[in-house]
From TrEMBL, chains A, B:
Single annotated GO MF: aminoacyl-tRNA deacylase activity
Protein's recorded name: Proline--tRNA ligase
Domain text: Consists of three domains: the N-terminal catalytic domain, the editing domain and the C-terminal anticodon-binding domain.
Swiss-Prot/TrEMBL catalytic activity: tRNA(Pro) + L-proline + ATP = L-prolyl-tRNA(Pro) + AMP + diphosphate
Pfam family membership, one: tRNA_edit
Entry-linked CDD domains: ProRS-INS, ProRS_anticodon_short, ProRS_core_prok
Keywords: Aminoacyl-tRNA synthetase, ATP-binding, Cytoplasm, Ligase, Nucleotide-binding, Protein biosynthesis
Aminoacyl-transfer RNA synthetases class-II family profile domain span: 33-470
EC class (word): ligase
EC number(s) recorded for this UniProt protein: 6.1.1.15
One GO term of the biological process aspect: prolyl-tRNA aminoacylation
Family: Belongs to the class-II aminoacyl-tRNA synthetase family. ProS type 1 subfamily.
Amino acid sequence: MRASRFFISTLKEAPSDAEIISHKLMMRAGMIKRLGSGIYTYMPMGLRIIRKVENIIREEMNRAGAVELLMPVVQPAELWQETGRWDKMGPELMRVKDRHGRDYAIQPTSEEVITDVVRTEVKSYRQLPINFYHIQTKFRDERRPRFGLMRGREFTMKDAYSFDRDAAGMQQSYQIMYDAYVRIFDRFGLQFRAVAADNGAIGGSGSHEFHVIADTGEDALVYCPDSDYAANIEAAEAVAPSAPRAAAAQALTKTPTPGKAKCEDVAKLLGLPLSQTVKSIVLAVDREDADAEVWLLMLRGDHDLNEVKASKIPGLGAYRFATEAEIVEHFGTRPGYLGPIGTKKPVKVVADRTVAAMSDFVCGANEEDFHYIGANWGRDLPEPVVADLRNVVAGDASPDGKGVLAIQRGIEVGHVFQLGTRYSEDMKATYLDESGKPQLMQMGCYGIGVTRILGAAIEQNFDDKGIIWPTAIAPFEVVLCPMGYDRSEAVKAETDKLYAALQASGVDVILDDRGERPGVMFADWELIGVPHRVVIGERGLKEGKLEYQGRRDPAATAVAVADMADFVKARIAA
Amino acid sequence: MRASRFFISTLKEAPSDAEIISHKLMMRAGMIKRLGSGIYTYMPMGLRIIRKVENIIREEMNRAGAVELLMPVVQPAELWQETGRWDKMGPELMRVKDRHGRDYAIQPTSEEVITDVVRTEVKSYRQLPINFYHIQTKFRDERRPRFGLMRGREFTMKDAYSFDRDAAGMQQSYQIMYDAYVRIFDRFGLQFRAVAADNGAIGGSGSHEFHVIADTGEDALVYCPDSDYAANIEAAEAVAPSAPRAAAAQALTKTPTPGKAKCEDVAKLLGLPLSQTVKSIVLAVDREDADAEVWLLMLRGDHDLNEVKASKIPGLGAYRFATEAEIVEHFGTRPGYLGPIGTKKPVKVVADRTVAAMSDFVCGANEEDFHYIGANWGRDLPEPVVADLRNVVAGDASPDGKGVLAIQRGIEVGHVFQLGTRYSEDMKATYLDESGKPQLMQMGCYGIGVTRILGAAIEQNFDDKGIIWPTAIAPFEVVLCPMGYDRSEAVKAETDKLYAALQASGVDVILDDRGERPGVMFADWELIGVPHRVVIGERGLKEGKLEYQGRRDPAATAVAVADMADFVKARIAA
């Protein structure tokens, strides 16, 4: 490609609504252009990256035996009503009426449509398993679209759906997709991690998220450096302390803690470690024809509640945080001084595994400006119901017993999910088994956020000059920067020769023939993030040399003119 | 591709809602699947064809210097309001509100968005010309979606938009696109014709439609076999008869024609050629604060009104057909016996060029059951206003004076259009010229109906067995049909060898390893329309032969095993 036949548009400053680095850099590099809230035009430079991402996904999906089709963007409401998602999905599902007043959804995913295709196309066990995918425009009417392509409303997603005869088959299809995802993210050239994820309300036996590692990631990824264990923090188990609970050593004593409503402040006042304190979190579960049921969850002062884990405690499935009125009614005091001892009305107490192993702990005394010290289970209050309630922290024991956990930040870009019969039941997607009996199909679904990959890749790979693309998904693999293409015959001749040689070898090369000054040219391509650059100048040519510089290289390398094509190819292949 | 890893689903009968052959065959061949009215899932077999069509378009657009980007499906109403199309487009424009009640259009085309991109990105004459295109999902809420992909609601379109400094530049960009379209349709391997089209309300200096030739086409294409002249029938000029009007020979005579309200019946009754009769078409133009103005258009009995030409007559821009009440009021009688002589109230008369050259003609007498014979201009009624009002017919003189016209049917699949400043004016899309003055950009737009190509290609290429794809856009170039792939070692070995050899040569080959009976296999691939087939059987192998058959060949050709790969490649290249 010659730059003069392409469209390059860079900005010195990012627009003020760009909050994060990937959004800023994509806007500055002219890769996307905002059309409306969460809606972007993919400019030529951005579209090239999207196409490369799509092609890698397509190749690996095909290799894994998935078959590509294309489902419509505008989908009849009837199918969404069959699964109940028309009502459940709320305003995120963009709805539209046609000229006859019929309802349609603009697809955010396509479980309903693919299940409809398969239930009519697949009759027999002989046609299973089958895995269909498409790469298509999606729309989610996010409440607060932001971060450019990271949380847009219109985006491109690859979604695949497997259909199997039974759960064992589904698990096999799932594993094939998992392996394909590993190959896909490997080929992108991104650092990533697959983590076990929570299955949410769907249940089922398995779900993994694929995250691009980035310090700016929204998600906390838990992993064990000494083993294969890895999970989203929502799903990571905090194992019970291995040491038994120490015997009580202190007497229960009510202590004044005036104005100290937080564990940190109480610990400081009392000169105790934060890990000796216990915090009280009050939840409520609404009941028909009765007041809400009030629950008290107890966590160590330095730990955080894991809301997903809380929702899995029997009876807490539909919890909410208690109101101040409910708290005062049950505890006789306001938040900040709550505890399990001497509540005004009975509450259901659940202690985190760590808390259950504590002795001589500090907790609120249910009286304003007072805490207890020296509280002990079985003596001052009954032995509690125990559950895993907290987020793990770095240094916790790994659930597989093979070391301690570490935490890093990630950006979710893929998700594989064992759906079981969640959709096939509602939509009566059955096949006839060997004995001619109808059986529900077992489904899996597998998504990759194509456009999100761009944002995530940048969050992982940038410096103060701009983006640093991995070669596999760079808009161009190499840029040729001639110094005076229109002025110097020698420069033009050598540039054209190298350009032709690289093109002939299948290298995706752009020749910057715009006639810009070197400073502008270099700044543009560093901002855009092309990973390999060759400078062709008269001075170098006099010595028979061209200058190569990798985007991460601290300095340029002089390479003999005749060797440059091979040198570049070797660097691309590296 | 192995058939066992693909998805093949054929039907013996087309669903009853499929009216035309291309729709029936695409449904039967498992290429598309109906999701809703005018909304189809592109099944794997259909998607392969779409991708091949897209790739040819993409290559030729890029070669012509157009730059690909991707504009959103969901577009803010504000831009559509700037050009007035939000109001003008009516219910065909699918509209949707987001969670905040803001209005959006689901794009039917993207003039507004691209003009918005360019007016902010392009500042200087140095950046022009530029031509952007995208291949994207479109939606038009057709009143009566039908014919499968031919008139769907959701479809895929390639739309390109050129921006130039001035009209001369626009015409140059237009010619580049015209030439690219010729290459694209040539590469598809379809018989096509580019015809001059009417510019509609936009005006401007040029517009051509690209039609795939098919007897079942909706459009009539006019061309001169002896010259380059070609036009849509809407735009084809009917030149005035070259012979001067003959002198009046008959007296004007009112003749009873009881119950004969049609020219055909009157001519028969009177024993005159139909070409001696004149029909009267009554139009009305509404006026503010006054009754509608009534016009009488006169055409020869065997000619048809061209409504586009009528709308271009000064004063008739917004005509409608007159009501029966208006007709009775002005002519004193009901339709069937109307004429220009002795109307009850004055009407504006326009005669078609052919009619203006007639003498001794027959027309209605403005009295029920009576016509005049022997009517003559300048004697029985004033010389008329003359205009080209009719559709041309085969045998008419070509407007370029180089022969006579022929007519064939076509399916419109592409349109190139000189827009001028239609959009840049409304949206203030200006650039700074050499002297720093803002100037309006001159635009062109260029569409190809990607999914429509499939329907059109089939309407042109089918037989009683199914579809016959041109090789360039066939879902597969060649199918290998082994007789007993799983039973015969020899068959399997030779099939695998040929499969590998063809794949290594870049041939898009499918190996039918489904284990179907030969009859089923052949019927499927003839229906699907793969253009080249090789049968590998034990009987042939004993003589060292395989069987090749082109989809249009009346019989198979025996080819030596070792020669088959080259033979197939030669046939594909032919």
